[in-house]
Design brief:
With 71 residues, the chain is mainly β. The protein has strands spanning 6-12, 15-22, 25-35, 38-44, 54-61. It has one domain (6-61). Strands 1-2-3-4-5 form a five-stranded antiparallel beta sheet, with no helix packed on it. It is globular, with a radius of gyration of 14 Å.
Amino acid sequence: MPPTVTTSVRKVKGQTYLQGVAYGETELHRIVSYRDGVLVIDISRDGKAGSKKIAFRKVLVATPHSFDWTP
């Protein structure tokens, strides 16, 4: 079973971060931009605020709800 992950947006020293908490561990990834349903995030290697060790840049695109699904 996958871990329960809590995700939120947090400001640290004037920068906006996406904060994820799983198994009691917290990681912060800097939000580069969000415009017109496109979210760009820098994924750091250590998950700490202000980290200069960027491993990936992730781009997420919002898609409209297209069908009804019930488990």
